[in-house]
Design a protein that fits this description.
By secondary structure, the chain is an alpha/beta fold. The protein has helices spanning 72-75, 81-89, 107-119, 158-161, 164-173, 185-198, 212-228, 237-242; strands at residues 20-26, 32-33, 43-49, 77-79, 95-99, 123-128, 143-147, 176-182, 203-207, 232-233. The chain is built from eight helices and ten strands. α3 links the parallel β5 and β6.
C-alpha cells in the first residue's frame, strides 16, 4: 500500500476561483498562538490545507496526505476563499498562518483569500516546505514565508525535498525565514551546508520532538552549537503548552 495518495490538485485556467482543499481551521473557538519561528508566541489563526508533495516519515500532520493511515474524505473538506475569509474576519486576531500539508500546492487558489486578509489589515505567514516557488501575487507586503526545507534525517530524500530554484526564489523575495527541524549536531552541519550553498538567512532551528521531554532533551543537545553559529532558536511552543493537541 502506498504511503500517500495522489495530490489530486490539478491546475486550471480558473484556478483562483476554485475551492480550497482544507484539513482544518482553528484559533477562534479555542484561541491559540503561533508556536514556531519568528512570530512564536503571537496570537494566531490557522488554516491548514490538505495534501502534500512530500512524504516525510517524521511528519506530524500525516492526516493531510497519508491515505494509508487516514481517509481523505474524513480529513478534508472543500471551502471557498470567501468562506475562509468570512471565518477569519470573525476574529480580531491579526496573524493568519496558512500551513499544511504543503499550502503552495494550492497557491493560485489562495490569492483571493490573501488579498482579502491583507485588505482587512491582517498579516499572513505561510508555512512551506520550500519546494515550490511562490507566485508573484503572494510576494507582497504583509506576507511572510516560514520556509522549512526537510533534510535527510527528517525522513525524506533530499533529491525531492531540496529544490534549488525554489529556495533561490524565496531568498530573492526578501520575505522568507528558513526554519529547520534538527535532532543532532550532525543535523546542524547539514543545515550549515545548505545555508552556505543557497545563502539562506535568517536561519531558525527547531528541536525535533512531539513531547515536552523530547523537546527539552533535544534543545539541550543543540543549544550551544546553535548559539555558536549565531542562528535563531525556536521552541515548539504549542507542544509545550498544549501537549501537541490537534487544533491548537
Amino acid at each position: 500500500m502506498t504511503t500517500s495518495g495522489p495530490i489530486d490538485i490539478e491546475p486550471a485556467a480558473d484556478d483562483a476561483a476554485r475551492p480550497l482543499i482544507v484539513a482544518e481551521c482553528f484559533g477562534i473557538e479555542v484561541p491559540t498562538f503561533q508556536g514556531e519561528g519568528p512570530s512564536c508566541g503571537h496570537p494566531a489563526l490557522f488554516i491548514r490545507l490538505s495534501r502534500c508533495n512530500l512524504t516525510c516519515t517524521k511528519c506530524d500532520t500525516k492526516y493531510t496526505w497519508d491515505w494509508s493511515q487516514f481517509d481523505p474524505r474524513k480529513e478534508s473538506t472543500k471551502r471557498t476563499a470567501q468562506d475562509l475569509l468570512a471565518w477569519a474576519m470573525s476574529s480580531p486576531v491579526e496573524l493568519m498562518v496558512i500551513t499544511g500539508g504543503e499550502p503552495l500546492l494550492q497557491q493560485r487558489r489562495l490569492v483571493p483569500l490573501v488579498r482579502g486578509l491583507l485588505d482587512a489589515g491582517k498579516r499572513v505567514e505561510f508555512e512551506t516546505n520550500g519546494t515550490l516557488a511562490p507566485v508573484p501575487e503572494l510576494v507582497v507586503d504583509g506576507v511572510r514565508f516560514n520556509v522549512s526545507p526537510k533534510i535527510a534525517s527528517f525522513g525524506m530524500d533530499e533529491a525531492k525535498s531540496v529544490v534549488p530554484a525554489a529556495l533561490e526564489a524565496f531568498v530573492e523575495s526578501g520575505r522568507a525565514a528558513f526554519k529547520f527541524v534538527a535532532s543532532s549536531v550532525a543535523d546542524l552541519e547539514r543545515i550549515a551546508d545548505l545555508a552556505d550553498t543557497y545563502r539562506l538567512a535568517p536561519v531558525w532551528v527547531m528541536p525535533e520532538g512531539t513531547t515536552v521531554e523530547a523537546i527539552t532533551a533535544t534543545t539541550r543537545v543543540l543549544a550551544d552549537a546553535v548559539a555558536a553559529r549565531h542562528w535563531y532558536f525556536t521552541p515548539r511552543l504549542h507542544v509545550i503548552a498544549f501537549a501537541d493537541a490537534r487544533g491548537r
